[in-house]
Design goal:
118 residues, mainly alpha, 4 helices
Length: 118
């Protein structure tokens, strides 16, 4: 049987680590996230390139700093020639999908509904 690589990058907005059971808070009942964390990779130390949500996403999705990828503030799109992680995965034969707020298409809080290729 052929196995497939699977990567799920799950991001929440303005959620502290102490609000999840998998990070030690026994009063937080988050069984599904806790189970995923137990079967996968859990980050114990993570830092952001920018404290504002759109630019922080731009850093995660491109591997570049917001001031170089064009999205250094909310409602600012990525530069036209900036590749995202989804595009790089697609370029290497992996199937990709995105669900949720993108925040990198240049629209307002709700966005324009347009994600980059990949």
């Amino acid at each position: 049987m052929k196995t497939h690589k699977q990567i799920i990058l799950m991001m929440t907005d303005t959620q502290r680590r102490d609000m999840l059971g998998c990070y030690g808070n026994k009063d937080m009942l988050t069984p599904n996230i806790d189970r995923l964390a137990g079967e996968s990779m859990l980050f114990n130390k993570a830092y952001t390139t920018q404290p504002v949500c759109g630019p922080a996403r731009s850093g995660l999705f491109t591997g570049t700093y917001p001031h170089t990828n064009g999205s250094w503030g909310n409602s600012m799109p990525l530069g036209a020639n900036v590749k995202t992680i989804g595009q790089r995965f697609s370029d290497n034969g992996l199937h990709t999908g995105y669900i949720g707020k993108y925040h990198l298409d240049g629209g307002d809080y709700f966005g324009l509904g347009k994600c980059a290729e990949g």
